[in-house]
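@channel anyone free to eyeball this complex?
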Amino acid sequence: MGKFWSLVFLSVPVLGVAVFVAAASWGYWFPQNVSAHGGQIDHLFMVILWLTGAVFLATEIVLAVSLWRFDGAKSPRARFSRGNMRIELGLAAVVGLLLVFITVYQLEDWAEAKIRQPDLPPTVEVNGRQFEWVMRYPGPNGELGDADDLFSPGDLHVPVDEDILVSLVSEDVLHSFYLPNLRIKQDAVPGMRIPVWFRATETGVFDLVCAELCGWGHYKMAGRLIVESRADYEAFLTRLEAEQNEDGFEEQQPTAANTSQRHPSVAEVVYRRAAR
Amino acid sequence: MTVAASPSPGAPLVDANSHHRGFLRRYIFSTDHKVIGLQFYFSTLIWFFVGGALALAVRWQLAWPWSEMPIVGRMLFAAEGGQISPEFYTMLVTMHATIMIFFVIIPILAGAFGNFLIPLMIGAEDMAFPTLNMFSYWFMWPAFACMTASFFVAGGAASAGWTSYPPLSVLHDAAPGSGPGQTLWLLGVVFIGIASMLGSLNYLTTIIQMRAPGMTMLRLPMTIWGLFITAILQAFALPVLTAASVMQLTDRLLGTGFYLSEAGGQPLLWQHLFWFYSHPAVYIMILPAMGMVSDIISCYARKPLFGYRPMVAAIIAIAGLGFIVWGHHMFMSGMNPAMGTTFMAATILIALPSAVKVFNWLGTLWGGRIEFTSAMLNALAFVSMFIIGGLSGIFMAATTVDIVIHDTYFIVGHLHYVLFGGSTFAVFAGTYHWFPKMFGRQMNEFWGKVHFLLTFLFFNGTFFTMHIIGMGGYPRRVAAATAYAEFARFEPLNVFMTICALGMGFTQLIFAANLFGSLIWGRRADRNPWRANTLEWTAPSPPPHGNFDFQPVAYRGPYEYSSPEVTADFYPQNQPPDAEPATAAAH
Ligand code: HEM
Ligand SMILES: [Cu+2]
Ligand SMILES: [Cu+2]
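replying in thread with the prediction:
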């Protein structure tokens, strides 16, 4: 039976590799990348995939070979050995080096993605709330956070080939601003304003996903990311402005000050609780 | 006390202490560690099937969204026409994970195997504090009651994820399950915490104080090392979770606002406190399993464990590092990204002792004389699957790569490779291995192997695929990803995973049938059916109250298989030098 079980365990590395090869050739791979930094993240993933893949194959094959060779039904007495410190330390050193390499190799990209915020005013504020994304663009004066801002739920419009700085907030519970095609993910946290930056390199319509469980409607908290030319983007803003002026919405537009008022006050929260 | 040689198998049970006790004291409110261990075992087994059923419902919805569930659908959700509603789905994923983690893996490893094995393997009569031990089991029941009741309260059971992140979990109207269901969830977690803390203090004291003569720390079997370090982790990390849960309770009930920004609190505070416990908790869920697997592999390879001291050192290193890596669950949370770098370094470092463990298991097999029993096959599966789970951990530990895979099915794949592929296969292995000691009978080997083979294949079919859709960005905890154009391509894989999951679920009925059937019809086992070295195998099967019918003494380490000093291929820990094992004649 040793041979049979050896083959069962050998199927793990064989099928493991086969699955990745098949996935790559049948289109079950990364989402299409349309961001400036995403290629680098995919590259890092592949570097780790190759390194861990080598360790995976080596260890799983040694396991299967041991089962084949040392089947108790045909082996004599087992070799008596309590271990070998030299091999142990040698392997640990190799693994240690690989791990240090992986850590150091991706530090720079992490800093680019999350630490070195580009020096520009926020392009748009994205506000997560159960169960939609609400975008707030600067109005005609070009400044975000004042009375002439433009609001629009659902679609996030951004100009192509420009650095975008999103100011991410949430007004109720946690959400996560996830753009699979731009390799972007960031939780939105009530009480925090978190910067997110990227540069889209292709025009088109892409998914804006909520990646943090936010309640029963989490599955449908979908938005769209619309990457368009500078001209189309500006046309969109003009259209939005016209719409907002038309329906007399102007007077009631929330200002920076009263946006934060939309969070329930402590008294309200306590009251709501007492009420049940 | 004189040292007796191990008596011949089948010697009459010496049950000096328990013959005068009534049924209630013997089997229900028992202070005997073995009875408590089995109480834990059977309670968690029931929850294993409940949690498994919830998982199948989750998979049903993912493969065939909003379609009527056959047979049980109409019974459970008559109002929705037999469909799973989105609120019910979030409750399912929450309660599946909660039950599997808090009611199955942690209590079956520490509670069931820990209780049963610690005194037997160290050569003690019982735990240091038998009554406390009894309470550690009975404190599980308020937790069981809370979680069970929560399914029937208004709004249903908790549905904020097993991680219970505020504000979703704190604001009563944030989700249907954030009503009384969430309060009961928190109470359940507090009770479970108390139960585990009582257990861990007892384990620590017992292992430190009650070892048999000659049983030095470095002669302890790895199972005991795993349980010992686990108890330390529980003793230090659990109070944090318990306090954090009480704070969430007061936020909900008294309006304290620790976790609400509008009340001066911080949602991220919960995440820090929760993961400060729950990262060590993932090691609580694997270190005892690693210990058991080490013992089982050495026994059926008939070869000493490769590198005993490095194995002990690796467990200690994993546990120590385990306390400073919790932030790897929070790379995308809004925590200072520079802190993410530190947590990444610590996390990647933890892969090193994990790698040492894998090499040593392989080293143990190499040159062995392998016996392919059901216990051994499941232990080998642990090694094979833990390799995958450990390696996928490296992707997520690399902060930059985690941007794309955090909160996707890649994480779900990772955690099931370590928790099902790792811990659960170890539980199966431990069951087949120690069943003869628990009940004095053997489990059926043929059905054991059928169960193993089917579980192994279906498991990989279900969970390996998750890495692929996770790479594709498929988000977790989403009732149906149909709102997103990007993920439509994965629908065929979802159906495939669900079919495998159903196969795996039904295969577990074979295990249950084998377990309960063997209780009645199993072949009788003598003291040491596997020709193993550790002390539990020198006690009668099953051991009487008080365990040993002689004073066990350890003369050597637990792994002297195929030692050149004796002709038999094992050399029990209690066998005086220059005597042949008494039970060797039986084989
Ligand atoms: C080499 C060792 C390991 C490494 C490097 C590692 C790394 C990680 C990382 C970085 C995450 C967070 C991923 C994310 O949310 O983006 C994670 C999640 C997780 N890990 Fe591991 N891990 C390892 C071993 C284990 C073990 C042994 C267990 C349990 C027995 C485990 C259980 C889990 C669980 C349950 C989660 C998901 C928690 C959740 O979000 O629900 N891991 N792991
Ligand atoms: Cu959401
Ligand atoms: Cu962790």
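from a first look: Chain B touches chain A through 118 residues (CB under 8 Å).
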